[in-house]
Please model this.
Amino acid sequence: MNEKQVIILGIETSCDETSAAVLVDGRELKSHIISSQVSTHQKYGGVVPEIASREHCLHIQNVVEQALEQAGYDFTDLSAIAVTYGPGLVGSLLVGVAAAKAMAYAAEIPLIGINHLEGHIYANFLEHKDIEFPFLILLVSGGHTNLILFREHLDYEILGQTRDDAAGEAFDKIARALGLGYPGGPYIQKAAQHGDANAFQFPRTMLEADSLDFSFSGLKSAVLNTMNTAKMKGETLNTADLAASFQAAVIDVLVQKTLRALEMHPVKSLALAGGVAANSLLRESLQTELAKRNLPFYYPSPIFCTDNGAMIAMAGYYRYKAKKYSSWILNAVPALKLAGSDKTEN
Model:
């Protein structure tokens, strides 16, 4: 192994994806393996925590071995192992953390605990190596909706966050109510392509005039109330129109809040992250607005929007460079918050 190379193994098991990736010098992704549980959980309409953790136990070793084999390395070549330790499902997190601790300890290399949300942010650097600081991040996932000012590596400030349902969570719940399937985002988007976004006038909750926080519980309730009222009256509503109108309301709020943040915090670019970052309407809407402002816009490919080990490896690379290692008592923290500029060791 070249002594100058930094080779990071990233492991992600926060929910229902068992993933591992090998990244070299923060630039070259040598391997990227994902074992998805979507088909396992679809019949339940969502992730079943106990089943998810068992599936991780079954696949974690094989996924890591595949990642190393595909990259052409073994444990003796690694500089460190980075692993998601929160937020997420506690059972799922524990599988990844336990595996990473055992591997790092046996290989006598640093262990680096990564906040899952920080991983999503760093997914942008997998394909856009030279994003200029400072930039704004719109992070939209199943459990979180945040606006983040990214000043430099490992130094960021949370400007806004969800006060109730996250955007991705709302997508899942409405998709389930419409009988579209799980995960909700792709199904809502597909149905919306055949619907009228103006068929239903659902609320856009913007909160206080200077607030950058989000709230989607009112929108979710409005959609469910519309459906329940129609059912009581014996009316049949057009599913595509409901999906399109709901999606438009979510995207409107995300875009308008982002533009508000850009006015309040001048930056050099905007980056999108998280599972909902794969939504084409969201990307197109933001692209249109940012083009008017001559502001660069970055987002990961769809494969890096979902949970993956590559983003954990990338975040791990920058923590390794800063010597921000974790201790051997690192544990799963299912409700872990995004710490911002707090760079203390885990």
